[in-house]
Amino acid sequence: MRNGLFIFLLLLAACAEKTPMCVDDNSLPVPAEGYVALQGGHFVIDGEEWFPLMLNYKAFIRNGEVIPAPWYSGGGIREHFDTIASWGYNAVRVCLDVMDEGGDTAAMYGATRRMVQQADSAGLRVMLLIKAPFEGYWQEYAQGLMRRLADLPALWAYDLMNEPLYFDPEEDRDKCDAANTVCQWKRLVREYAPHQLFTVATAEPIEVFEWDPSMLAVDFIEMHTYHPLRVQAEMWWYSHYTGKPWMVGETGLPADGDSVPYREQVGFMWETYRYAKLNGAAGYGWWEFQDCPEGVNFEAQYTGLRDKEGRRKPAADFAKTIPIICLGVGLEEDDLPPVNYYNMLAYENVAATGRVVDEEGMPIEGAVIRGWNKDWSVGVNTYSDSNGYFRLVSNDICTHFEVSAPRCSKVKFDKKPPYPAGIGLPNRTREYQQIPLLGWGPCYPGPMGDTACYPLPWAAIDDTAAHKRFEAPNAVEASIGDITLKRL
Prior knowledge:
Residues 1-14, 327-333 and 437-462 have low confidence and may be disordered. 23% of the residues lie in helices and 24% in strands. The protein contains eleven helices and 23 strands.
Protein backbone atom coordinates (compact mmCIF):
# COMPACT_ATOMS: atom_id res chain seq x y z
CA MET A 1 0.00 0.00 0.00
CA ARG A 2 1.29 3.49 -0.81
CA ASN A 3 2.48 5.46 2.20
CA GLY A 4 0.23 8.39 2.93
CA LEU A 5 -2.68 7.13 0.85
CA PHE A 6 -4.76 6.56 3.95
CA ILE A 7 -5.00 8.30 7.29
CA PHE A 8 -6.99 6.18 9.70
CA LEU A 9 -7.50 7.78 13.12
CA LEU A 10 -8.83 6.16 16.23
CA LEU A 11 -11.37 8.37 17.95
CA LEU A 12 -11.49 6.68 21.32
CA ALA A 13 -14.65 8.40 22.42
CA ALA A 14 -16.36 8.88 19.06
CA CYS A 15 -18.74 5.92 19.08
CA ALA A 16 -19.63 3.22 21.55
CA GLU A 17 -16.85 2.95 24.11
CA LYS A 18 -15.81 -0.49 22.88
CA THR A 19 -15.95 0.45 19.20
CA PRO A 20 -13.47 3.18 18.21
CA MET A 21 -14.22 4.48 14.73
CA CYS A 22 -12.03 4.39 11.65
CA VAL A 23 -12.29 7.79 9.98
CA ASP A 24 -12.24 8.17 6.21
CA ASP A 25 -9.74 10.69 4.85
CA ASN A 26 -11.82 11.05 1.65
CA SER A 27 -8.96 9.90 -0.56
CA LEU A 28 -9.91 9.00 -4.13
CA PRO A 29 -8.43 6.48 -6.56
CA VAL A 30 -5.15 7.22 -8.31
CA PRO A 31 -6.08 9.08 -11.53
CA ALA A 32 -5.38 7.10 -14.68
CA GLU A 33 -6.16 7.51 -18.38
CA GLY A 34 -9.47 5.97 -19.45
CA TYR A 35 -10.71 5.21 -15.92
CA VAL A 36 -13.78 6.79 -14.35
CA ALA A 37 -12.90 9.32 -11.64
CA LEU A 38 -14.76 11.73 -9.37
CA GLN A 39 -14.45 15.47 -9.73
CA GLY A 40 -16.66 18.11 -8.18
CA GLY A 41 -19.31 15.58 -7.17
CA HIS A 42 -19.61 14.13 -10.69
CA PHE A 43 -18.04 11.25 -12.56
CA VAL A 44 -15.48 12.13 -15.22
CA ILE A 45 -13.42 10.24 -17.80
CA ASP A 46 -10.19 11.98 -18.74
CA GLY A 47 -11.63 15.27 -17.46
CA GLU A 48 -14.93 15.03 -19.36
CA GLU A 49 -18.15 14.61 -17.35
CA TRP A 50 -19.68 11.14 -17.62
CA PHE A 51 -23.19 10.45 -16.35
CA PRO A 52 -23.80 6.70 -15.87
CA LEU A 53 -27.19 5.73 -17.20
CA MET A 54 -27.12 2.23 -15.77
CA LEU A 55 -29.21 -0.91 -16.10
CA ASN A 56 -29.05 -3.67 -13.51
CA TYR A 57 -28.26 -7.13 -14.83
CA LYS A 58 -28.39 -10.37 -12.83
CA ALA A 59 -25.80 -13.03 -13.62
CA PHE A 60 -24.13 -16.12 -12.18
CA ILE A 61 -20.85 -17.96 -12.69
CA ARG A 62 -21.26 -21.54 -13.91
CA ASN A 63 -18.64 -23.87 -15.41
CA GLY A 64 -16.08 -21.12 -15.79
CA GLU A 65 -18.40 -18.62 -17.52
CA VAL A 66 -20.59 -15.72 -16.47
CA ILE A 67 -24.10 -16.62 -17.59
CA PRO A 68 -27.33 -14.55 -17.62
CA ALA A 69 -30.01 -15.06 -15.00
CA PRO A 70 -32.17 -18.02 -16.07
CA TRP A 71 -35.23 -15.81 -16.63
CA TYR A 72 -33.37 -13.72 -19.23
CA SER A 73 -34.32 -15.04 -22.66
CA GLY A 74 -32.71 -14.77 -26.08
CA GLY A 75 -28.98 -15.19 -26.45
CA GLY A 76 -26.03 -14.78 -24.12
CA ILE A 77 -24.41 -11.97 -22.24
CA ARG A 78 -22.78 -10.28 -25.22
CA GLU A 79 -26.07 -10.17 -27.11
CA HIS A 80 -27.78 -8.75 -24.03
CA PHE A 81 -25.07 -6.12 -23.60
CA ASP A 82 -25.50 -5.05 -27.23
CA THR A 83 -29.24 -4.74 -26.63
CA ILE A 84 -28.72 -2.65 -23.50
CA ALA A 85 -26.34 -0.32 -25.34
CA SER A 86 -28.82 0.02 -28.22
CA TRP A 87 -31.40 1.27 -25.71
CA GLY A 88 -29.15 4.20 -24.82
CA TYR A 89 -27.51 2.90 -21.63
CA ASN A 90 -23.80 3.40 -21.09
CA ALA A 91 -23.31 1.24 -17.98
CA VAL A 92 -24.47 -1.99 -16.36
CA ARG A 93 -24.44 -3.05 -12.75
CA VAL A 94 -23.69 -6.75 -13.00
CA CYS A 95 -24.94 -8.48 -9.86
CA LEU A 96 -22.67 -11.44 -9.08
CA ASP A 97 -23.30 -11.47 -5.34
CA VAL A 98 -25.18 -14.79 -5.20
CA MET A 99 -22.28 -17.21 -4.90
CA ASP A 100 -21.17 -20.15 -2.76
CA GLU A 101 -17.75 -20.74 -1.29
CA GLY A 102 -15.37 -23.05 -3.09
CA GLY A 103 -14.87 -23.75 -6.74
CA ASP A 104 -12.08 -22.84 -9.10
CA THR A 105 -11.39 -19.22 -8.22
CA ALA A 106 -8.95 -18.77 -11.13
CA ALA A 107 -11.73 -19.82 -13.52
CA MET A 108 -14.18 -17.43 -11.83
CA TYR A 109 -11.70 -14.56 -12.11
CA GLY A 110 -11.17 -15.33 -15.78
CA ALA A 111 -14.91 -15.52 -16.44
CA THR A 112 -15.50 -12.16 -14.77
CA ARG A 113 -12.67 -10.58 -16.72
CA ARG A 114 -14.12 -11.81 -20.02
CA MET A 115 -17.54 -10.51 -19.03
CA VAL A 116 -16.15 -7.01 -18.39
CA GLN A 117 -14.36 -7.12 -21.74
CA GLN A 118 -17.61 -8.11 -23.45
CA ALA A 119 -19.37 -5.14 -21.86
CA ASP A 120 -16.52 -2.87 -22.95
CA SER A 121 -16.74 -4.07 -26.55
CA ALA A 122 -20.48 -3.33 -26.48
CA GLY A 123 -19.82 0.22 -25.27
CA LEU A 124 -20.78 -0.31 -21.62
CA ARG A 125 -18.91 0.25 -18.38
CA VAL A 126 -19.42 -2.14 -15.48
CA MET A 127 -20.23 -1.63 -11.83
CA LEU A 128 -19.59 -5.03 -10.27
CA LEU A 129 -21.61 -6.19 -7.25
CA ILE A 130 -19.82 -9.05 -5.51
CA LYS A 131 -20.23 -11.02 -2.31
CA ALA A 132 -19.54 -8.81 0.70
CA PRO A 133 -15.92 -9.48 1.79
CA PHE A 134 -16.51 -9.56 5.53
CA GLU A 135 -13.72 -12.00 6.25
CA GLY A 136 -12.00 -15.25 5.33
CA TYR A 137 -12.83 -16.79 1.97
CA TRP A 138 -14.72 -13.82 0.52
CA GLN A 139 -12.04 -11.33 1.51
CA GLU A 140 -9.42 -13.44 -0.23
CA TYR A 141 -11.72 -13.85 -3.23
CA ALA A 142 -12.19 -10.07 -3.49
CA GLN A 143 -8.44 -9.46 -3.28
CA GLY A 144 -7.75 -11.91 -6.09
CA LEU A 145 -10.53 -10.54 -8.27
CA MET A 146 -9.50 -6.91 -7.83
CA ARG A 147 -5.86 -7.65 -8.53
CA ARG A 148 -6.67 -9.49 -11.76
CA LEU A 149 -9.15 -6.89 -13.06
CA ALA A 150 -7.31 -3.74 -11.99
CA ASP A 151 -6.11 -3.06 -15.55
CA LEU A 152 -9.64 -2.83 -17.01
CA PRO A 153 -10.86 0.80 -17.28
CA ALA A 154 -14.33 -0.48 -18.27
CA LEU A 155 -14.71 -1.79 -14.71
CA TRP A 156 -15.53 1.58 -13.23
CA ALA A 157 -16.71 0.67 -9.71
CA TYR A 158 -17.01 -2.10 -7.14
CA ASP A 159 -20.16 -2.45 -5.07
CA LEU A 160 -19.17 -4.53 -2.05
CA MET A 161 -22.56 -4.98 -0.42
CA ASN A 162 -26.17 -4.80 -1.53
CA GLU A 163 -28.65 -3.11 0.80
CA PRO A 164 -27.27 -3.82 4.30
CA LEU A 165 -30.67 -2.83 5.69
CA TYR A 166 -32.03 -6.11 4.35
CA PHE A 167 -29.00 -8.35 3.86
CA ASP A 168 -26.55 -7.65 6.68
CA PRO A 169 -25.84 -11.03 8.33
CA GLU A 170 -25.40 -9.33 11.71
CA GLU A 171 -28.56 -8.13 13.41
CA ASP A 172 -28.54 -4.70 15.06
CA ARG A 173 -25.00 -3.84 13.97
CA ASP A 174 -23.27 -0.99 15.76
CA LYS A 175 -22.86 2.10 13.55
CA CYS A 176 -19.16 2.35 14.20
CA ASP A 177 -18.63 -1.31 13.45
CA ALA A 178 -20.25 -0.74 10.05
CA ALA A 179 -18.04 2.31 9.48
CA ASN A 180 -14.92 0.34 10.44
CA THR A 181 -15.88 -2.51 8.13
CA VAL A 182 -16.28 -0.16 5.18
CA CYS A 183 -12.94 1.50 6.00
CA GLN A 184 -11.31 -1.92 5.75
CA TRP A 185 -13.04 -2.56 2.42
CA LYS A 186 -11.82 0.77 1.09
CA ARG A 187 -8.29 -0.13 2.09
CA LEU A 188 -8.74 -3.41 0.20
CA VAL A 189 -9.94 -1.65 -2.96
CA ARG A 190 -7.21 0.98 -2.87
CA GLU A 191 -4.48 -1.64 -2.53
CA TYR A 192 -5.69 -4.14 -5.14
CA ALA A 193 -7.74 -1.93 -7.51
CA PRO A 194 -6.08 1.48 -7.21
CA HIS A 195 -7.92 3.07 -10.17
CA GLN A 196 -11.44 1.79 -9.56
CA LEU A 197 -14.13 3.49 -7.49
CA PHE A 198 -15.88 1.89 -4.54
CA THR A 199 -19.41 2.01 -3.12
CA VAL A 200 -21.95 0.18 -0.97
CA ALA A 201 -25.57 0.01 -2.15
CA THR A 202 -27.84 1.52 0.50
CA ALA A 203 -31.61 1.35 0.64
CA GLU A 204 -34.08 3.49 2.59
CA PRO A 205 -32.94 6.39 4.82
CA ILE A 206 -33.42 4.08 7.84
CA GLU A 207 -30.02 2.67 6.80
CA VAL A 208 -28.85 5.54 9.03
CA PHE A 209 -29.67 3.38 12.07
CA GLU A 210 -26.73 1.03 11.33
CA TRP A 211 -25.01 1.56 7.95
CA ASP A 212 -25.09 5.35 8.22
CA PRO A 213 -24.26 6.50 4.66
CA SER A 214 -22.67 9.70 5.94
CA MET A 215 -20.13 7.62 7.92
CA LEU A 216 -19.22 5.10 5.22
CA ALA A 217 -15.79 5.52 3.61
CA VAL A 218 -17.18 4.97 0.12
CA ASP A 219 -16.21 7.13 -2.85
CA PHE A 220 -19.86 7.80 -3.66
CA ILE A 221 -23.29 6.83 -2.34
CA GLU A 222 -25.38 4.44 -4.43
CA MET A 223 -28.95 4.55 -3.14
CA HIS A 224 -31.95 2.37 -4.03
CA THR A 225 -35.52 3.62 -3.97
CA TYR A 226 -38.74 2.25 -5.43
CA HIS A 227 -42.23 3.03 -4.22
CA PRO A 228 -43.65 6.12 -5.99
CA LEU A 229 -44.87 7.62 -2.71
CA ARG A 230 -41.41 7.41 -1.16
CA VAL A 231 -38.92 7.83 -3.98
CA GLN A 232 -38.70 11.62 -4.13
CA ALA A 233 -38.60 12.07 -0.36
CA GLU A 234 -35.80 9.50 -0.11
CA MET A 235 -33.81 11.13 -2.91
CA TRP A 236 -34.16 14.49 -1.19
CA TRP A 237 -32.89 13.12 2.13
CA TYR A 238 -29.90 11.39 0.53
CA SER A 239 -28.98 14.48 -1.48
CA HIS A 240 -29.04 16.75 1.56
CA TYR A 241 -27.63 14.70 4.44
CA THR A 242 -25.11 12.08 3.28
CA GLY A 243 -22.30 14.50 2.45
CA LYS A 244 -20.95 12.58 -0.54
CA PRO A 245 -21.56 12.38 -4.29
CA TRP A 246 -24.58 10.16 -4.84
CA MET A 247 -26.42 8.31 -7.57
CA VAL A 248 -29.57 6.26 -7.94
CA GLY A 249 -28.36 2.68 -8.27
CA GLU A 250 -31.77 1.03 -8.45
CA THR A 251 -35.26 2.28 -9.04
CA GLY A 252 -38.18 1.00 -11.06
CA LEU A 253 -41.91 0.81 -11.44
CA PRO A 254 -43.45 -2.60 -12.14
CA ALA A 255 -45.61 -2.65 -15.25
CA ASP A 256 -47.28 -5.66 -16.81
CA GLY A 257 -49.20 -3.80 -19.49
CA ASP A 258 -52.45 -4.74 -17.77
CA SER A 259 -52.95 -3.79 -14.12
CA VAL A 260 -50.19 -1.18 -14.51
CA PRO A 261 -50.00 0.22 -18.06
CA TYR A 262 -46.59 0.52 -19.69
CA ARG A 263 -47.05 4.27 -20.06
CA GLU A 264 -46.87 4.56 -16.26
CA GLN A 265 -43.46 2.92 -16.29
CA VAL A 266 -42.34 5.44 -18.91
CA GLY A 267 -43.70 8.29 -16.79
CA PHE A 268 -42.02 7.01 -13.66
CA MET A 269 -38.66 6.74 -15.45
CA TRP A 270 -38.98 10.26 -16.79
CA GLU A 271 -40.00 11.87 -13.52
CA THR A 272 -37.55 10.04 -11.25
CA TYR A 273 -34.68 10.77 -13.61
CA ARG A 274 -35.65 14.43 -13.73
CA TYR A 275 -35.91 14.60 -9.95
CA ALA A 276 -32.57 12.84 -9.46
CA LYS A 277 -30.89 15.35 -11.76
CA LEU A 278 -32.65 18.22 -10.03
CA ASN A 279 -31.14 17.13 -6.72
CA GLY A 280 -27.61 16.66 -8.04
CA ALA A 281 -27.45 12.90 -8.66
CA ALA A 282 -24.25 11.80 -10.41
CA GLY A 283 -25.95 8.83 -12.12
CA TYR A 284 -29.21 6.92 -12.55
CA GLY A 285 -29.83 3.17 -12.56
CA TRP A 286 -32.93 1.05 -13.35
CA TRP A 287 -33.90 -2.38 -12.06
CA GLU A 288 -33.75 -4.55 -14.20
CA PHE A 289 -33.03 -5.94 -17.71
CA GLN A 290 -35.98 -8.38 -17.99
CA ASP A 291 -39.04 -9.35 -15.99
CA CYS A 292 -38.66 -12.21 -13.52
CA PRO A 293 -41.85 -14.33 -13.69
CA GLU A 294 -40.97 -16.16 -10.47
CA GLY A 295 -40.33 -13.04 -8.41
CA VAL A 296 -41.54 -12.93 -4.84
CA ASN A 297 -44.03 -10.11 -5.52
CA PHE A 298 -45.44 -7.92 -8.27
CA GLU A 299 -42.59 -5.45 -7.97
CA ALA A 300 -39.96 -8.17 -8.33
CA GLN A 301 -41.75 -9.70 -11.31
CA TYR A 302 -42.43 -6.73 -13.58
CA THR A 303 -39.78 -3.99 -13.23
CA GLY A 304 -37.81 -5.22 -16.26
CA LEU A 305 -37.45 -3.33 -19.53
CA ARG A 306 -38.26 -6.55 -21.38
CA ASP A 307 -41.28 -8.65 -20.55
CA LYS A 308 -40.99 -12.31 -19.58
CA GLU A 309 -41.07 -13.28 -23.29
CA GLY A 310 -38.12 -11.02 -24.04
CA ARG A 311 -40.10 -8.29 -25.81
CA ARG A 312 -38.95 -4.76 -25.03
CA LYS A 313 -41.31 -2.45 -23.20
CA PRO A 314 -41.84 1.19 -24.22
CA ALA A 315 -39.63 2.39 -21.34
CA ALA A 316 -36.64 0.68 -22.99
CA ASP A 317 -37.02 2.83 -26.08
CA PHE A 318 -37.67 5.94 -24.03
CA ALA A 319 -34.33 5.54 -22.24
CA LYS A 320 -32.56 6.61 -25.42
CA THR A 321 -34.13 10.07 -25.16
CA ILE A 322 -33.20 10.75 -21.54
CA PRO A 323 -29.60 11.91 -22.07
CA ILE A 324 -30.73 14.10 -24.97
CA ILE A 325 -33.41 15.77 -22.86
CA CYS A 326 -31.65 16.15 -19.54
CA LEU A 327 -27.87 15.92 -19.70
CA GLY A 328 -26.14 19.25 -19.53
CA VAL A 329 -29.29 21.24 -18.88
CA GLY A 330 -27.81 22.58 -15.64
CA LEU A 331 -30.84 22.22 -13.43
CA GLU A 332 -30.56 24.09 -10.15
CA GLU A 333 -31.16 22.19 -6.95
CA ASP A 334 -34.52 22.82 -5.38
CA ASP A 335 -34.14 23.33 -1.62
CA LEU A 336 -37.82 22.68 -0.93
CA PRO A 337 -38.52 19.06 0.04
CA PRO A 338 -41.32 17.14 -1.69
CA VAL A 339 -44.78 17.92 -0.44
CA ASN A 340 -45.03 14.49 1.24
CA TYR A 341 -41.54 14.58 2.79
CA TYR A 342 -42.74 14.65 6.40
CA ASN A 343 -45.83 12.46 5.88
CA MET A 344 -45.09 10.26 2.89
CA LEU A 345 -48.30 8.22 2.99
CA ALA A 346 -50.83 10.93 3.79
CA TYR A 347 -51.70 9.46 7.19
CA GLU A 348 -54.10 11.65 9.14
CA ASN A 349 -55.26 10.12 12.44
CA VAL A 350 -52.59 10.91 15.06
CA ALA A 351 -49.21 12.63 15.28
CA ALA A 352 -46.39 12.05 17.77
CA THR A 353 -44.37 15.26 18.06
CA GLY A 354 -41.00 16.03 19.59
CA ARG A 355 -37.54 17.45 19.01
CA VAL A 356 -34.18 15.83 18.25
CA VAL A 357 -31.21 17.53 19.91
CA ASP A 358 -27.57 16.82 20.70
CA GLU A 359 -25.95 16.66 24.14
CA GLU A 360 -25.60 20.44 24.16
CA GLY A 361 -29.29 20.91 23.43
CA MET A 362 -28.65 22.04 19.87
CA PRO A 363 -31.13 20.94 17.20
CA ILE A 364 -30.30 18.08 14.85
CA GLU A 365 -31.64 18.40 11.32
CA GLY A 366 -32.27 15.43 9.06
CA ALA A 367 -32.77 12.88 11.83
CA VAL A 368 -34.83 9.85 10.84
CA ILE A 369 -37.67 9.02 13.24
CA ARG A 370 -39.35 5.64 12.88
CA GLY A 371 -42.35 4.47 14.83
CA TRP A 372 -44.20 1.15 14.98
CA ASN A 373 -47.62 0.36 16.33
CA LYS A 374 -48.04 -1.90 19.35
CA ASP A 375 -47.85 -5.23 17.50
CA TRP A 376 -45.08 -4.06 15.09
CA SER A 377 -47.34 -4.59 12.07
CA VAL A 378 -47.03 -1.04 10.65
CA GLY A 379 -43.93 1.16 10.58
CA VAL A 380 -43.88 4.90 9.79
CA ASN A 381 -41.03 7.33 9.10
CA THR A 382 -40.50 11.06 9.24
CA TYR A 383 -37.58 13.49 9.59
CA SER A 384 -36.57 16.38 11.82
CA ASP A 385 -36.54 19.90 10.39
CA SER A 386 -33.86 22.59 10.66
CA ASN A 387 -34.90 23.28 14.25
CA GLY A 388 -34.87 19.62 15.23
CA TYR A 389 -38.67 19.34 15.41
CA PHE A 390 -40.58 16.39 14.02
CA ARG A 391 -44.20 15.36 13.60
CA LEU A 392 -44.66 11.63 13.04
CA VAL A 393 -48.15 11.23 11.54
CA SER A 394 -49.70 7.75 11.53
CA ASN A 395 -53.07 6.06 11.33
CA ASP A 396 -52.39 3.80 14.31
CA ILE A 397 -50.80 4.79 17.62
CA CYS A 398 -47.05 4.23 17.61
CA THR A 399 -45.51 2.90 20.81
CA HIS A 400 -42.08 1.66 19.62
CA PHE A 401 -39.54 4.21 18.38
CA GLU A 402 -36.08 4.29 16.84
CA VAL A 403 -34.24 7.54 16.09
CA SER A 404 -30.88 8.42 14.58
CA ALA A 405 -29.30 11.03 12.35
CA PRO A 406 -26.27 11.23 10.08
CA ARG A 407 -23.08 10.97 12.18
CA CYS A 408 -25.10 10.61 15.38
CA SER A 409 -25.86 7.81 17.81
CA LYS A 410 -29.06 5.79 17.76
CA VAL A 411 -31.74 5.47 20.43
CA LYS A 412 -34.57 2.94 20.73
CA PHE A 413 -37.37 3.24 23.24
CA ASP A 414 -41.00 2.35 23.94
CA LYS A 415 -43.44 5.10 24.85
CA LYS A 416 -47.16 5.61 24.41
CA PRO A 417 -47.92 9.22 23.47
CA PRO A 418 -50.56 10.78 25.77
CA TYR A 419 -53.42 10.87 23.29
CA PRO A 420 -56.94 11.36 24.69
CA ALA A 421 -58.96 8.21 25.18
CA GLY A 422 -61.39 7.08 22.52
CA ILE A 423 -59.90 8.78 19.47
CA GLY A 424 -60.94 7.38 16.11
CA LEU A 425 -58.43 5.37 14.08
CA PRO A 426 -59.80 4.71 10.59
CA ASN A 427 -57.54 2.79 8.18
CA ARG A 428 -55.27 2.01 11.11
CA THR A 429 -53.47 -0.92 9.44
CA ARG A 430 -52.86 0.75 6.09
CA GLU A 431 -49.30 0.53 4.74
CA TYR A 432 -47.75 2.04 1.64
CA GLN A 433 -48.22 -1.18 -0.34
CA GLN A 434 -51.99 -0.72 0.04
CA ILE A 435 -52.13 2.77 -1.45
CA PRO A 436 -52.96 2.92 -5.18
CA LEU A 437 -50.16 4.15 -7.41
CA LEU A 438 -52.45 6.51 -9.30
CA GLY A 439 -54.74 9.39 -8.59
CA TRP A 440 -52.52 11.72 -6.56
CA GLY A 441 -52.76 14.70 -8.80
CA PRO A 442 -52.97 16.35 -12.21
CA CYS A 443 -51.55 15.18 -15.50
CA TYR A 444 -48.16 16.09 -16.86
CA PRO A 445 -47.35 16.35 -20.57
CA GLY A 446 -45.63 13.42 -22.23
CA PRO A 447 -41.97 13.65 -23.29
CA MET A 448 -40.61 14.64 -26.70
CA GLY A 449 -43.79 16.20 -28.01
CA ASP A 450 -46.06 13.38 -26.92
CA THR A 451 -49.54 14.87 -26.57
CA ALA A 452 -50.76 12.15 -24.21
CA CYS A 453 -51.48 13.14 -20.63
CA TYR A 454 -50.20 10.84 -17.90
CA PRO A 455 -51.54 11.06 -14.32
CA LEU A 456 -48.80 11.57 -11.77
CA PRO A 457 -48.41 8.34 -9.76
CA TRP A 458 -46.64 9.95 -6.81
CA ALA A 459 -47.18 12.63 -4.26
CA ALA A 460 -44.69 15.41 -4.95
CA ILE A 461 -47.24 17.91 -6.22
CA ASP A 462 -46.76 21.54 -5.33
CA ASP A 463 -50.32 22.71 -4.87
CA THR A 464 -52.44 23.80 -1.91
CA ALA A 465 -54.73 20.77 -1.82
CA ALA A 466 -51.79 18.36 -1.77
CA HIS A 467 -50.04 20.31 0.97
CA LYS A 468 -53.16 20.30 3.12
CA ARG A 469 -53.65 16.56 2.70
CA PHE A 470 -50.08 15.66 3.62
CA GLU A 471 -49.92 18.13 6.50
CA ALA A 472 -52.79 16.22 8.13
CA PRO A 473 -54.22 19.27 9.94
CA ASN A 474 -56.84 17.23 11.81
CA ALA A 475 -54.44 14.66 13.27
CA VAL A 476 -54.61 14.43 17.07
CA GLU A 477 -51.20 15.44 18.44
CA ALA A 478 -49.28 14.31 21.52
CA SER A 479 -45.67 15.07 22.44
CA ILE A 480 -43.08 12.41 23.22
CA GLY A 481 -40.58 15.11 24.26
CA ASP A 482 -36.94 15.75 23.37
CA ILE A 483 -34.79 12.94 22.01
CA THR A 484 -31.06 13.38 22.65
CA LEU A 485 -28.45 11.95 20.29
CA LYS A 486 -24.70 11.95 20.63
CA ARG A 487 -22.75 13.44 17.73
CA LEU A 488 -20.10 11.01 16.46
